[in-house]
Amino acid sequence: MANTKSRTAVRPRVIVSDADIKDGVRALRRKCEVLRRVHDLTGHPPLRRRPAGFEGLARIIVGQQLSVASASAIWERTALACQPFEPAVLLALTDKQLAAVGLSRPKIRTLRAISEACAGGLDLTRLEHLAHEEVHATLTAVSGIGPWTADVYIMFCLGRADGWAPGDLALQVAAQQAFELDERPDNDRMLELAERWRPWRGVAARLLWAYYAALKAKRTAVPV
Questions:
Q1: DSSP-assigned letter for residue 197
Q2: Total domain count for the chain?
Q3: Structural domain boundaries, residue 81
Q4: How many CB atoms neighbour CB 15 within 10 A?
Q5: Each residue of 38-79: pLDDT tens digit?
Q6: Does residue 182 belong to any structural domain of this protein?
Q7: pLDDT at residue 223, rounded to an integer
Q8: Are residues 37 and 109 in the same domain?
Q9: Nearest-CA neighbor of 58 among 99, 132, 112?
Q10: SS3 helix, strand, coil % of the chain, rounded to 5?
Q11: Does residue 123 sit in the same domain as residue 145?
Q12: Which residue of 85, 88, 104, 204 could cross-link 197, Cys pair, CB 3.0 to 4.6 Å?
């Protein structure tokens, strides 16, 4: 007799408040001595939630590979030039107008590709109902959106508690230092390391980013 048992979709946990971060930190401290030491050093990590949808995705693109200060300044100019911040309005802006706010040519191309995809039927509001892998595949199908951008959107715009960005350089450096590895771990090694942190890989990422910032501050501190 065929198995007719229905499959029930498990809705992924979403981080919506600082209380969720605290739940994740408590769970990670119990299961991982390395992250326990990281947390002792860095303290409580920030919530780092961002709006979902077109604006949230665009903001990730604008801020990629920039310092926090530069990303914030360019985003403010971009948002001011595109009012309201919608795909059709952005598509109406010329490349010259977008470059004038500080956007590079690759970022302009990606923002246009996202806008065209949304104008052509891509509904970003549906992503919150999709599985992690489906969200990733949908976003990376848009020209200019790579795995890192999709991973960050999943973590901060959709708030997935188990989101993870194995290709993030800062996470790789932080993991190398935290685990005292001889080499910086690649994507596959980062996925392997993070298995122990499920279903709270997104909180583990926040802890490691805080650890990376602490390491960077220590390296750049001027001796008295």
A1: G
A2: 2
A3: 54-157
A4: 25
A5: 999 999 999 999 999 999 999 999 999 888 899 999 999 999
A6: yes
A7: 54
A8: no
A9: 112
A10: 65, 0, 35
A11: yes
A12: 204
The number of residues in the chain equals 224
pLDDT attached to residue 163: 97
Rounded to an integer, what is the distance from CA 168 to the centroid of its chain?
A: 9
Q: What are the tokens at 176?
A: 């190398």
- 91 contacts 111 by C-beta, under 8 angstroms: no
Same domain, 63 and 131: yes
The whole-angstrom separation of Cα 47 and Cα 127 is: 21
What's the token pair of residue 134?
Answer: 């489906």
Residues 131-138 have a mean pLDDT of: 96
Return all residues near 89 (Cβ < 8 A) that are at least 6 apart: 82, 83
pTM of the model: 0.90
33 and 69 housed in the same domain: no
Between CA 217 and CA 164 the distance in angstroms is 24
Asked if residue 214 and residue 194 are part of one domain, the reply reads yes
Based on the fold, state whether residues 120 and 196 are members of the same structural domain: no
Residue 113: Cβ-neighbour burial (10 angstroms; 0-12, 13-18, 19+):
middle
Q: Which residue has the tokens 């279903």?
A: 199
Same domain membership, residue 141 and residue 58: yes
Choose the final residue of a domain: 112, 132, 157.
157
Cα separation of 31 and 34, whole Å?
Answer: 9
Measure Cα distances from 73 to 58, 67, 79, 106, 132 in Å.
14, 10, 10, 18, 31
Q: What is the pLDDT of residue 220?
A: 65
